[in-house]
Design brief:
single chain, alpha/beta, Rossmann fold, six-stranded mixed beta sheet, globular, binds adenosine-5'-diphosphate, transmembrane transporter activity, ATP hydrolysis activity, membrane, ABC_transporter-like_CS
């Protein structure tokens, strides 16, 4: 599970992005993170995969305080967490297969495991038939499927999705949501920052709303709660 206690984050330029965040997220939950631009959503998720460190307060995953990890141990945190971005962040010169395989090579999985697992996850997200394609030969929705395959390749306990449908049209977005729900069904915790009123109000999940770096609302099956 994920625990944050009185987390404050100020950036070097003096911007205060998180202002005393307290939250508990259990294993297997699906959580939407909503709020206006600049509310602190990206900073919140960065606290979890140690993309940024809090100034004060504690962030724990499975009861281990992330501040006890040394820089060189950060890969151990990342191994538990898959991250999906709005702009996919695929490596443009690598094929679909290679993009996913690369994520497993860097954690030194065996070639045999890599071969099996890459095709397995590409199949899971419905993109196996494009294994030899380059990212720019794919549509946005297809690229996001590859990014999700990469994120789940090493079976992380947590998947963080920072506006995963932000660059996709509505039809494509529903397909991506279906995949995230399937991944959640296998017990993986999903934390998804989003501006999609339609998705949040249709596929009901726990909603955590941030404003000015504070949690202003946290409800099971909540609404988006802002004007689109
Ligand atoms: P959101 O994801 O809700 O849009 P962010 O967490 O990206 O919010 O940003 C929260 C605040 O922190 C904003 O004012 C933003 O400009 C600022 N911020 C985010 N990242 C940085 C950074 N690396 N350096 C300085 N300020 C930042
Ligand atoms: P996001 O969709 O993740 O909120 P942004 O466009 O806000 O993306 O930020 C892109 C990158 O720039 C992030 O790494 C973020 O931390 C950084 N960033 C955001 N706001 C600022 C800022 N005011 N000063 C410096 N860096 C920032």
């Amino acid at each position: 599970m994920i625990d944050m206690k009185d987390v404050h984050k100020d950036y070097a330029n003096g911007v205060s992005a998180l202002n005393g965040v307290n939250v508990h997220i259990d294993n297997g939950e699906f959580v939407y993170l909503v709020g206006p631009s600049g509310a602190g959503k990206s900073t919140f998720v960065k606290m979890i995969f140690r993309g940024e460190k809090p100034n004060t307060g504690t962030v724990k995953i499975d009861n281990i305080d992330l501040s006890t990890y040394k820089e060189r141990q950060i890969p151990q945190i990342r191994r538990k967490i898959g991250v999906v971005y709005q702009d996919f962040k695929l490596l443009p010169k690598l094929t679909v297969y290679e993009n996913v395989a690369f994520a497993l090579e860097v954690i030194e999985e065996s070639p045999k495991l890599i071969r099996d697992r890459v095709m397995e996850v590409l199949d899971l997200v419905g993109i196996k038939h494009k294994a030899r394609s380059l990212p720019d030969e794919l549509s946005g929705g297809e690229q996001q499927r590859v990014a999700i395959a990469r994120a789940i390749a090493n079976k992380p306990k947590i998947v963080i999705a920072d506006e995963p449908t932000g660059n996709l049209d509505p039809d494509t977005s529903w397909g991506i949501m279906k995949i995230l729900e399937d991944i959640n069904q296998t017990g993986t915790t999903i934390i998804m920052a989003t501006h999609s009123q339609e998705i949040v109000n249709t596929i009901k999940k726990r909603v955590i709303a941030l404003e000015n770096g504070r949690i202003v609302r946290d409800e099971a099956g909540g609404d988006y709660g802002y004007e689109a």
